[in-house]
Predict the structure of Transcriptional activator Ogr/delta.
Amino acid sequence: MRISCDRCGSKARISTTSKVTDQLSKLYCACTNVECGHTFVMHLEFGHTISPSVLDLPEATRDALRDCANPAQAQLVLAG
C-alpha cells in the first residue's frame, strides 16, 4: 500500500497503526520529504466483500473441494 502526503505529494511512511475496530484502523503517517515534514493520520476501513472467502464454507465442503481434480468438479461440489 502506498501512502502519499496530501501537502506535497511525496511518499509517506506509516509509523504506527492503531486498530479501532475489526474493520477500521488509524494509520499514523509521516512525509518522507524533509522539506515538507507533514505528519498526519489516515483511516483505513474495510469496504465490502467482492468474492467470499472459501473459509466461510462448511469444513466438509472445503474438504470435498480439495479432492476435486478440475474446476468442473469443484462447480458440482458447490452446486450441492
